[in-house]
């Protein structure tokens, strides 16, 4: 169990760190219907797994419609974001750890 509380990320989005180590971080993001993960970039490699719900992801010039069980990898430095089409949860892994989430 995580010692980290859930916190507001973007409007309609909560974030909870599930596990962390200097080399890797696992984070849960819960989205309300219509909420957005605003486009951004960071130096971390990110993998995203859709635990539940439906999402439209933007990564560079590509768009991906993802549902439960789908995943994708976002390269370091790539501009990306998503829109929640159906309330759900994403499990993201970052390498190295996102110290800004601590």
Write the layout of secondary structure elements.
Blueprint: E1 7-8, E2 13-21, E3 24-31, E4 36-40, E5 45-59, E6 62-66, E7 71-74, E8 80-95
Antiparallel strand pairs: 1-2, 2-3, 3-8, 4-8, 5-6, 5-7, 5-8
Verbal overview:
The protein has 102 residues and is mainly beta. It has one domain: Jelly Rolls. The protein has no helices and eight strands. Strands 1, 2, 3, 4, 5, 6, 7 and 8 form an eight-stranded antiparallel sheet that branches.
Shape: globular
Order of helices and strands: EEEEEEEE
* E-strand count: 8
Give the C-alpha Rg: 13 Å
Structural class: mainly beta
Contiguous helical run count:
0
User: Any idea of the CATH topology?
Assistant: Jelly Rolls
Instruction: Please mark out the parts with pLDDT under 50 across 5 or more consecutive residues, or reply none.
Output: none
Percent helix, as a range, is under 10%
Q: Main β-sheet, in a few words?
A: 8 strands, antiparallel
Mean of residue pLDDT values: 95
Looking at the overall shape, the CATH architecture is Sandwich
Total domains, how many?
A: 1
CATH class: Mainly Beta
Query: Strand content of the residues, in percent?
Result: over 45%
CATH superfamily: Jelly Rolls
């Amino acid at each position: 169990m995580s010692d980290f509380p859930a916190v507001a990320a973007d409007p309609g989005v909560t974030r909870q760190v599930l596990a962390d180590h200097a080399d890797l971080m696992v984070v849960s993001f819960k989205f309300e219907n219509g909420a957005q993960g605003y486009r951004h970039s960071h130096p971390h490699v990110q993998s995203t797994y859709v635990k539940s719900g439906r999402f439209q992801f933007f990564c560079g010039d590509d768009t991906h419609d993802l549902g439960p069980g789908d995943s994708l990898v976002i390269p370091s430095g790539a501009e990306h974001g998503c829109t929640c089409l159906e309330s759900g949860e994403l499990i993201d892994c970052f390498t190295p750890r996102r110290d800004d989430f601590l």
